[in-house]
């Protein structure tokens, strides 16, 4: 009996001992330290957004030391170490980041990246530390031969040199880049250098952390013809306060000095001397790029456009009365009247009979004011003299035009419902025809066309009848305007502008209105 009771007691003590051993880590968690660690993760997020990676790393390092081996739960400790590794990575110290991530995986093997920081280059390095492949060192391959720099010093242009041996004809090579602190992709055009193309990513993008970029080549028509890398798998270069190896440089050139320092800087080299990059089609970032070489934009542009004129009509009474002797309008505004069917009113072929039936006060009255005028539908052709200047011609049909014959016979209108004009257009920006996106524009020109507008009034003969009262001018005119052009690609664009027309013959008449168009280039 005694022996049996002893065995039972011993078994109970063993169970309690095992339970104590199993629960000791959980019981050892310090709630105060655990809470402070979670707050450190949140505060580090704000410092990350401000690109203050050193401060964020120091905060998380302190939290990791406070957690120690047992004062934080495994999940919290792993999260602290995971984000600490992220800050070290963004600070350009990949080795330290990989060591810290290895500790995070020991604390919690299935820890994943903080979604607030998840980017392709960070994920690749994180998964490499886990052992899942996608190494940071695995740079992309593609159509261009290119070896990225192993590292670069902060605030120093990063040289990029590529060569191409494919079958496509490459007229332009572009590098699209994003610095560690940038939200959008910038862009520079590389220049011909020996058997390849070279340039420098500007200092504004060479900030501490990881610089990403990829390369794209275009043919003479502006269509993509070759590439190496892409936004999801770019080349990556660690950017550090100091570098240990040879400074990156272009073939046959000295390594660039930091911005603000004197450096070997051949004229026209993209990115040299801290030159800003141009906004890219992937989203903005940077400033302006060097103009692309000749032949990299469409020279011939064909298009369609539509315009609506507005005209200011004068006020007047008895506006349809004619001079009995000359059959010219008696009103001072050179206003002409027509019937609803488009014929002249009063008739000119009845020896003044209809005109004599009109009496003062009943021969038409208008209040004046702004009225819609002509509607123009135009086909256009332009030739690009440069990446910013086009000259061309337009030919089209004029709707809602004067329908009578009298104003034409008197030299106050032009009979054909046509618009024929020449125009010069200037686009603002750096090589706007060679880049996608918006470009402000101005234009000026002249030609021959209809310019008229009308309003309806009532006259009294034997009965009250409606007539149209027209203000007319033409055919010669000058035009000017301004607006914006948006290039969807290097071959397709949309334009929107405000236009002013000044008719110079048949009387002086000014019209105003919007103009919309589309263009396609070859």
Structure characterization notes:
This protein is of the alpha+beta class and 522 residues long. It folds into 3 domains: 20-130, Alpha Horseshoe (Serine Threonine Protein Phosphatase 5, Tetratricopeptide repeat), CATH 1.25.40; 144-279, Immunoglobulin-like, CATH 2.60.40; 300-521, Porin. 21% of the residues lie in helices and 35% in strands. The protein is built from 8 helices and 25 strands. The strands form 5 sheets. It has an 8-stranded antiparallel β-barrel. Strands 2, 4, 5, 8, 9, 10 and 11 form a 7-stranded mixed sheet that branches. Strands 1-3-7-6 form a 4-stranded antiparallel sheet, with no helix packed on it. Helix 3 (53-67) runs antiparallel to helix 4. The longest helix has 27 residues, at 2-28. It is elongated, with a radius of gyration of 38 Å. The model is unreliable at 13-27, 132-136, 262-268 and 273-295 (pLDDT under 50).
Question: Any descriptors?
Answer:
522 residues; alpha+beta; Serine Threonine Protein Phosphatase 5, Tetratricopeptide repeat; Immunoglobulin-like; Porin; 3 domains; 8-stranded antiparallel barrel; 7-stranded mixed β-sheet; 25 strands
CATH topology of the largest domain: Porin
Please identify the top-level CATH class of the largest domain: Mainly Beta
Uncertain spans: 13-27, 132-136, 262-268, 273-295
Physical arrangement of strands within the biggest beta sheet: 12-17-18-19-20-23-24-25
- Rg value: 38 Å
What proportion of the residues form beta strands (DSSP E)? Answer: 35-45%
């Amino acid at each position: 009996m005694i022996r049996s009771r002893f065995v039972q007691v011993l078994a109970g003590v063993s169970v309690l001992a095992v339970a104590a051993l199993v629960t000791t880590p959980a019981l050892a968690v310090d709630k105060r330290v655990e809470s402070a660690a979670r707050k450190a993760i949140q505060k580090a997020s704000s410092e990350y957004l401000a690109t203050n990676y050193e401060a964020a790393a120091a905060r998380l390092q302190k939290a990791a030391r406070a957690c120690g081996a047992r004062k934080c739960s495994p999940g919290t400790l792993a999260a602290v170490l995971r984000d600490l590794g992220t800050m070290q990575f963004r600070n350009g110290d990949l080795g330290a980041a990989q060591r810290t991530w290895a500790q995070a995986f020991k604390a919690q093997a299935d820890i994943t990246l903080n979604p607030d920081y998840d980017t392709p280059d960070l994920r690749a390095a994180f998964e490499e530390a886990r052992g899942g492949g996608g190494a940071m060192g695995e740079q992309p391959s593609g159509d261009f031969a290119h070896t990225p720099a192993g590292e670069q010093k902060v605030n120093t242009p990063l040289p990029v040199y590529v060569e191409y041996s494919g079958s496509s004809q490459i007229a332009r090579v572009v590098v699209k880049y994003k610095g560690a602190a940038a939200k959008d992709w910038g862009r520079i055009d590389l220049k011909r250098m020996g058997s390849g193309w070279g340039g420098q990513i500007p200092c504004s993008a060479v900030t501490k952390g990881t610089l990403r970029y990829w390369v794209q080549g275009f043919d003479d028509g502006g269509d993509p013809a070759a590439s190496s890398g892409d936004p999801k798998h770019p080349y990556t270069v660690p950017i550090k306060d100091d570098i240990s190896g040879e400074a990156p440089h272009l073939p046959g050139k000295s390594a660039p000095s930091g911005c603000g320092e004197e450096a070997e800087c051949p004229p026209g080299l993209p990115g040299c001397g801290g030159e800003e990059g141009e906004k890219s089609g992937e989203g903005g970032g940077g400033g302006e790029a060097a103009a692309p070489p000749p032949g990299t934009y469409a020279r011939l542009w064909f298009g369609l456009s539509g315009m609506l004129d507005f005209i200011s009509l004068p006020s007047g009474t008895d506006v349809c009365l004619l001079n009995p002797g000359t059959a010219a309008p008696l009103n001072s505004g050179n206003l002409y009247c027509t019937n609803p069917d488009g014929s002249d009113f009063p008739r000119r072929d009845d020896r003044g009979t209809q005109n004599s039936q009109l009496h003062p006060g009943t021969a038409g009255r208008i209040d004046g004011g702004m009225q819609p005028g002509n509607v123009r539908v135009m086909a256009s052709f332009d030739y690009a003299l440069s990446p910013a200047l086009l000259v061309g011609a337009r030919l089209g049909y004029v709707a809602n035009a004067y329908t009578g014959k009298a104003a034409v016979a008197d030299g106050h209108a032009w009979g054909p419902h046509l618009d024929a004009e020449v125009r010069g257009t200037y686009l603002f920006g750096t090589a706007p025809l060679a880049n996608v996106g918006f470009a402000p524009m101005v234009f000026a020109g002249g030609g021959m066309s209809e310019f008229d507008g009308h309003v309806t009034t009532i006259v009294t003969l034997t009965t009250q009848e409606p007539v149209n009262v027209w203000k007319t001018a033409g055919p010669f005119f000058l035009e000017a305007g301004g607006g914006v052009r948006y290039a969807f690609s290097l071959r397709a664009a949309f334009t929107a502008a405000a236009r002013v027309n000044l008719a110079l013959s048949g009387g002086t008449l000014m019209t105003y209105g919007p103009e919309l168009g589309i263009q396609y280039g070859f």
